[in-house]
Design a protein that fits this description.
Layout (H helix, E strand, L loop, with lengths): L1 E10 L6 H13 L4 E5 L16 E7 L9 E6 L4 E8 L5 E8 L2 E9 L5 H15 L3 E7 L6 H4 E2 L8 H12 L2 E3 H5 L8 E3 L4 E3 L2 E6 L6 E6 L10 E8 L18 H17 L7 H40 L1
Parallel strand pairs: 1-2, 7-8
Antiparallel strand pairs: 1-15, 2-4, 3-4, 5-6, 6-7, 8-13, 9-12, 10-13, 11-12, 14-15
Helix pairs in contact: 2-4, 6-7
Length: 324
């Protein structure tokens, strides 16, 4: 059986406050993210907060010992049966590699946050370390602080960018058979994940890579909007091999009873149900049990309508932000 999840790479620009952590987790949950690769968490070696979000139950960190501007973390959804086998952390808090099983398949997840200088040398060395560590299905993502194709991943009306470093990293990825998933799905498009207010420049700095022979596992890739951070997240729809879809259980959304008109509608439906089913041929036990299915169907329909309306409004607002 094959299940699908969403892998997200997101430079969050700090997670040291409870409010920011709550906002990021809520955002990931709303976007149905199963595996989150978070960069620039600002977690110090002695100041990693204890994270216990009810949806993201597994957290792995590579904190920075000397600077509050680094740190990377990986968060995994509670519905993913991930079992950690081994991990590799950067002493400087710039990369984190974890390897483990999801269901019956081995997966290796890499999260990187490249420095602002000497990116090509650092990325070349880090990719070699990751490939030496990797096993099974591979996903590598993060903020590489460098546009891979300056002609399409960088835009400015007044500035230019050196292409030597970009070419060196692109050649390393090609020789390592690692594919840029967004560019694979959007070969002729332009989009950016970072805007510099200082220089008035647009960059695509955030990437998700998979081996070329595993591109068939990728279903979709998109760049989100810049909202919670100065970077936009990148979302990858990814197929998991041998993982059953989690069972779901319906629960009543109690907020639906806050609307007086909907409460009256439910009351009228119940009255109509018991009026139409008052025959002596139907026992009270059957009548009572059947009414539960009837009213649950009404609540499901109402909840679906409310959620669809709210999600459509949210999508419209995010689309407007993305357009701006």
């Amino acid at each position: 059986m094959i299940a699908e999840t969403t892998v997200c790479s997101f430079n969050v620009k700090g997670l040291n406050t409870p409010e920011k952590r709550s906002q990021v987790c809520h955002y990931l949950q709303k976007n149905t993210v199963g595996i989150a690769l978070l960069q620039e968490t600002h977690f110090g070696l002695q100041h990693v907060p204890r994270l216990s979000h009810y949806v993201y139950s597994q957290w792995y960190h590579s904190p920075s010992p000397s600077s509050a501007s680094k740190g990377v973390s990986v968060a995994i959804h509670r519905n993913l049966p991930f079992t950690l086998c081994s991990s590799q952390l950067d002493p400087e808090g710039r990369y984190l590699f974890i390897k483990g099983t999801i269901g019956s398949q081995m997966y290796t997840i890499g999260n990187i946050y490249a420095p602002n200088a000497h990116q090509a040398e650092w990325l070349t060395d880090t990719i070699d370390k990751f490939l030496a560590f990797a096993e099974g299905c591979i996903v590598l993502g993060g903020d590489i602080n460098l546009p891979l194709e300056p002609s399409r991943d960088f835009f400015s009306l007044s500035r230019s960018i050196a292409i030597g470093k970009s070419r060196k990293v692109a050649q390393k990825l090609q020789s390592s058979a690692l594919a840029d998933t967004w560019r694979s799905f959007h070969p002729n498009e332009r989009d950016y994940s970072f805007f510099s207010n200082l220089h008035q420049t647009y960059h695509r700095l955030d990437y998700l890579f998979v081996p070329s022979n595993q591109l068939h596992l990728c279903k979709s890739v998109k760049i989100g909007s810049i909202t919670l951070s100065d970077h936009a997240p990148v979302f990858l729809g990814y197929s998991l091999q041998g993982v059953p879809k989690p069972a779901t259980r319906w629960r009543l959304n109690c907020t639906l009873s806050d609307d007086a008109s909907q409460v009256q509608r439910m009351t009228d439906s119940l009255s109509e149900y018991f009026t139409l089913n008052s025959s002596a041929e139907i026992s009270n036990g059957i009548r009572w049990e059947a009414h539960k299915s009837m009213i649950r169907g009404h609540f499901i329909a109402l909840g679906t309508h409310v959620n669809r309306t709210r999600q459509e409004k949210t999508r419209s607002l995010y689309a407007r932000i993305h357009e701006l």
